Amino acid sequence: MVSSIWTSGSLVCRELLHNTFDLVTEEILMERIFCAFDRLCDGVIHLDEWVLGLSCFLRGTNEELIKFTFLIYDLNNDGFITREEMFQLL
Ligand SMILES: [Ca+2]
């Protein structure tokens, strides 16, 4: 059984997210989306992380989507989004 799906920077992950969800593929944004899926922060998206991430993407409540987006913008994972973090992703 496959327990990990993709590693950080995986072209497969990037292409799938871009082609399936028509996401912008700026490098820093794709890396942050990867990190939001990678809840264990071990550089690998495991099957359960992939399913949870897709569930949020496809059927998440507004609150779940807000939390997911917050994870993307909180670059240093300190629980705050600073002006500098916001500008890096604009
Ligand atoms: Ca932060």
Relevant CATH superfamily: EF-hand
The helix content is 55-70%
Count of helical regions: 5
CATH-level-2 architecture: Orthogonal Bundle
Please give the largest β-sheet. Answer: 2 strands, antiparallel
Strand content: 5-15%
Rg over CA atoms: 13 Å
Extended strand count: 2
> Any idea how many domains?
1
Overall structural class, as computed from helix and strand content, comes to mainly alpha
Mean pLDDT across residues:
81
Pick out the low-confidence regions. Answer: none
Strand order of the largest sheet: 1-2
Protein name: EF-hand calcium-binding domain-containing protein 1-like
Keywords: Calcium, Metal-binding, Repeat
Domain EF-hand: 25-60, 61-90
GO molecular function: calcium ion binding
Lay out the secondary structure:
Elements: E1 4-7, H1 11-21, H2 27-37, E2 44-46, H3 47-59, H4 62-73, H5 83-88
Antiparallel strand pairs: 1-2
Bound molecules: calcium ion.
Residues 74-76, 78, 80-82, 85 line the site of calcium ion.
Could you please describe the fold and organization of this structure?
This protein is mostly helical and 90 residues long. The protein has a single domain, classed as Recoverin, domain 1. 59% of the residues lie in helices and 8% in strands. It has five helices and two strands, in the order βααβααα. Strands 1-2 form a two-stranded antiparallel sheet. The N and C termini lie far apart (39 Å). 10% of the residues are buried. The mean pLDDT is 81. The chain binds calcium ion. The site of calcium ion has 8 residues, from loops. The site of calcium ion (CA) has 8 residues, from loops.
